[in-house]
Every structure is written in structure tokens, then in C-alpha cells.
Design brief:
Layout (H helix, E strand, L loop, with lengths): L1 E2 L14 H14 L5 E4 L11 H7 L1 H8 L4 E5 L6 H17 L10 E7 L2 E7 L1 E6 L2 E6 L6 H17 L7 H15 L4 H25 L6 H4 L1 H10 L7 E4 L6 E3 L6 E4 L7 E2 L2 E2 L5 E6 L2 E6 L7 E3 L3
Parallel strand pairs: 1-2, 2-3, 3-5, 7-8, 8-10
Antiparallel strand pairs: 4-5, 6-7, 9-10, 11-12, 13-14, 14-15
Helix pairs in contact: 1-3, 5-6
């Protein structure tokens, strides 16, 4: 089972409601048919808008219900909970310094154990790979696919050229960490959070204007991101990927081109009204088994999408 973008800490997180959590647990016990693994696909906590203690506190009932299941829990970190990655990197740096290893180390992929409210979870960043139905499944939150990363990397590339240095593999992560940590540190200052919300809404309007008016695109969100997905797989040297699962945009959907991987967005658990627009399909989750993949919406008898791994 795959769940993305619960954004615990925000009032718009639907899983703040224990009754909805109970409904989800009951539904997946029927539809999941005895699944043995849950993947939390990033932005489970929202550290950008509230302090981390509140975000984790709001998730307690959800985590408690997960702890009652005899399943493995994987957590792929996103952008709104990116501080968890920074904490892990800082801990490793201090351990190396204690041993006398004083040289910086770039780790392109992280995996570590972490505990939230007595629940042990295996953490991953930026990707988690699994096998299902004899296929290679790659899961990532998806914030590496957005256009803002392209702008950031363009700035870094220009600065590197001016200084005569080569572009480094860690450049993108360093740029994102700088931005994300600034937002994280300002979460306790309401006026700054409000200003950041205005900037975010303005950027969304510009993106929609560019996509819907200037380019007159009528394609679905997953289709529009498909080229970015292929580029991410190439740039990260991820090899053969049959199915690419992500979240981030809060827009559930599925798309595939001939010869390319199946791309699936798991959607979110947020209220319908979000950032000035209405989500068509909130409260969605994925189920994977040997027969294929099913995208469901909580409380909806029929599935949204269902497909076999061909």
C-alpha cells in the first residue's frame, strides 16, 4: 500500500480525523487482501508551516493504528519533511568527526531506521526500490521533478561556469537543502509563513498560466511530468524502471508511453479546497500486488484506475 502527502500539522490534512483513519484502516483491510508493506511517500509531516512537534502530535492516532498492523513500514522523505534528511546527514557528519574523518562525503542515497511515537520505520531518500510482479518498482516523493529545481540548477550551473568549476552531483541537493531549511526554520513565525503562502500561490498561478494558456496544454498532470520523470531516472542512474510511483502534486493519475515506464501519482490526503483550487480526487492511495496496480479513493466503491503490469 502507498500513501502520500498527508501533511500532518496542517488543518487541511484529512487524516487528522480519527474517524477517517478508522475508515481507511477498515477499507484497506478488505481491499488490501492481507498486504505486508506500507510505503509512506513523503510530506507525511508538514514541517514548513508548523513546528515539528505539532506535526508529529497530529499524526499520533494514524501512527498508532499503523503500529497495530504486522506490516513493514517504509518512509520516503519528501520536501515538506526534508528536515529529517538534514538531521540524518548531520548525525552522520558528527559521527565521522568523532572518528577523526574530517572530509565531507556525498551520499546520493540514504537509508536509516527512525522511530516516531514508538513506531519503528525504515527511512529512505530520495528513492525506494522494490520488486512486484517480477517488475522493478521505483518510488520517490517527486519534488525533484518540479520546474523550480530546473531554475535552481540553472543558477548553480552558471555560477560553476563563472568560477571555472565542474558541476557536482551534490549541487541539486545542496540548493534544495538551503531553501527547505530556511522554510523549516521560519515555521514558528506566522508572518513569514503567510508571506511564503502568498509567494507559493503566485508561483502556482504562473505555472498554470504557462501550462494552460501559453502552451495550451490539455494533458493530465502525470502526462505533463513524464519527460521530467524520464530525465530523473537517467540523471540518477536508476537503471531499468518498469513502474515509477510518486506524489508531491496532490494530483492522482496514471500515464504511460510506449516503451517507457508506467508513471503513477498516488495523490494525497488533503481537503478538497487547497491553495485556491479544488482537488478532483482527494484521499487516494495505491495498492500493488502480483496481479497489478489499483488506485483507489477512500469511500469510493469502485477503483479510479486498475492495470496489470504488462
Amino acid at each position: 500500500m502507498v500513501i502520500s502527502d498527508t501533511h500532518f500539522g496542517l488543518s487541511s490534512s484529512t487524516l487528522n480525523d480519527p474517524a477517517l483513519v478508522d475508515q481507511l484502516m477498515e477499507e484497506i483491510s478488505v481491499c488490501g487482501n492481507g498486504f505486508d508493506e506500507i510505503v509512506l511517500l513523503g510530506d507525511i509531516f508538514d514541517f514548513w508551516r508548523v513546528q515539528p512537534e505539532k506535526a508529529v502530535r497530529d499524526s499520533i492516532y494514524f501512527l498508532r493504528m499503523l503500529s497495530r498492523m504486522d506490516v513493514k513500514i517504509r518512509y520516503v522523505v519528501g520536501n515538506h519533511d526534508h528536515h529529517l534528511v538534514v538531521q540524518k546527514q548531520d548525525d552522520e557528519s558528527m559521527e565521522r568527526m568523532a572518528r577523526g574523518d574530517l572530509y565531507p562525503v556525498y551520499v546520493p542515497s540514504l537509508r536509516w531506521p527512525q522511530t516516531f511515537n514508538h513506531l519503528n520505520i525504515e527511512m529512505f531518500y530520495p528513492t525506494y526500490r522494490m520488486r512486484c510482479c517480477h517488475r522493478n518498482i521505483l518510488l520517490t516523493h517527486g519534488h525533484h521533478l518540479s520546474g523550480i529545481q530546473t531554475v535552481s540548477m540553472g543558477v548553480v550551473e552558471t555560477l560553476r561556469k563563472l568560477s571555472g568549476e565542474d558541476q557536482l552531483p551534490a549541487d541539486l541537493e545542496m540548493m534544495m537543502t538551503h531553501s527547505y531549511e530556511n522554510i523549516y526554520r521560519s515555521a514558528c513565525i506566522g508572518e513569514i509563513v503567510d508571506f511564503e503562502e502568498l509567494l507559493w500561490k503566485a508561483s502556482l498561478m504562473l505555472q498554470r498560466l504557462k501550462a494552460g494558456v501559453l502552451r495550451n496544454q490539455r494533458s493530465k498532470p502525470v502526462e505533463r511530468q513524464y519527460d521530467s520523470i524520464l530525465k530523473f531516472i537517467r540523471d540518477q542512474n536508476l537503471g531499468d524502471v518498469d513502474c515509477f510511483i510518486y506524489g508531491d502534486t496532490h494530483r492522482a493519475g496514471i500515464y504511460q508511453r510506449k516503451g517507457g515506464p508506467l508513471a503513477v501519482n498516488a495523490g494525497c490526503f488533503m481537503q478538497e479546497q487547497e491553495e485556491g483550487y479544488t482537488l478532483e480526487t482527494p484521499n487516494t492511495y495505491l495498492l500493488l500486488d502480483e496481479e497489478g496496480l489499483t488506485l483507489r479513493q477512500l469511500g469510493r466503491p469502485e477503483h479510479l484506475y486498475q492495470c496489470e503490469f504488462l
